[in-house]
Amino acid sequence: MISKGINQIREKGGKSFSILFAGDFCVRSEKSLELLKNGGAQEIVRDIKPIFDSADIRVLQWEVVCGMEGSAIPKSGPNLHNPEYCIDFAKALGVDITLLANNHTGDFGAEMAIKTKERLEAAGFMTAGVGKDLSDAAKPLCFEHAGLKISLLNFCENEFGTARVDTAGTNPYSVTNISRSIRAAKKNSDLVLLAMHGGHEQNPLPSPRMTDEFRFYAESGADLVFNCHTHCPEGAEVVNGVPVIYSPGNFFFPKDELFGGNEEADRIWRTGYLTKFYCDENGVYAYELKPYRFTREGMTLLTGEAEDGFFKYLNAISAPLQDAGHLKRLFDGWSIGRGYKSYFNNIRNGLPELSAENMPSYLSIRNIFTCESHNDMIKNVLRIIEQGRVEEAAGYWEEVVKYMKMDF
């Protein structure tokens, strides 16, 4: 049961500090950009600023290229970039660390990925998850606080813009590399913090593969496991004394348009939670979640009945994590309900002749095989077809839809 206030895992040890993690930041609203351009960052964050001030270290997932230069790379999905003045948003919150391993840092090429890193560092932020090549991108961010040595590891799923042996980009997800990195960092650090970027967009429930792997990282020595990317809140749990956050939802990701006028989808898009971890030399001894909503004009902490409603919802979406059979049925429903069978139409009907114009068709198929979360779904759909369970799996979709609705 996740409650308001501090959730105690164990007794506090000696040296201690607190670290706050926030989810995805990107501005896709002209109105929000205008506010930031005109010095409105402090006003946008006014209500949530005290939560940031209460933490010793503040971490933000920066999910956008910093700067308007460069050419958009071929990919499936949008190419995102923001003007440099958007850095004022992170400055207004007193952010210390920006996480850059995500599916948009490389949207305008390797050079802009490095420029994003350099511009954020020039503004006073530490960065993690991107580098001049694969080896450089994989380096942990190492720092000290309260007399403790801390290593932060940052990985993202294998969509677009990941680093290669000779090419700059983000640090790609790999179960073996993550496990090795945790063990290596543990040798020289008091704490190892694992931050990742992946999952199924708009799905409030992680896949069985994700829960299995994230628990493995907790068992492998990570002192906390934090993930984002889904653009909606997902649940949380504690595994062997290690908190695992499957997704806090968007942090500040304003858009000018609704999802086809779908107000329910828009409400989930604009709702998330901050996660504050209380740490000592033995790991995390407590954690605290602070829910909020944002508009194009600002961010507001949830209080009263809205806050109560949020924790009721969070516990509801966290419950299936403890029932493997239930979680698998819900994932079956999601896999069929999201229409992944349609990808086979392109393959069955034949792809168009390879050309720059037709490249999106190829990249869309490439992504479902190389991105871990898309691949989760395509493999699951194929298994469901093999087992003759398409109609059965489709029946679980309605329960998934219920988890996608917020009544607060």
- CATH topology of the largest domain, by name, is Purple Acid Phosphatase, chain A, domain 2
Total helical elements: 16
Proportion in helices: 25-40%
Corresponding CATH superfamily of the largest domain? Metallo-dependent phosphatases
Stretches where pLDDT is under 50 for at least 5 consecutive residues are none
What's the CATH class label of the largest domain?
A: Alpha Beta
Examine the secondary-structure arrangement and name the CATH architecture of the largest domain. 4-Layer Sandwich
Q: Which descriptor suits the 3D outline?
A: globular
**Strand segment tally:** 19
Oligomer: single chain
Approximate strand percentage? 15-25%
Gyration radius over CA: 20 Å
Number of domains: 2
Distance between the termini: 19 Å
Largest sheet: 9 strands, mixed
Q: What average pLDDT do the residues reach? A: 95
Counting helices, strands and paired strands, the structural category is: alpha/beta
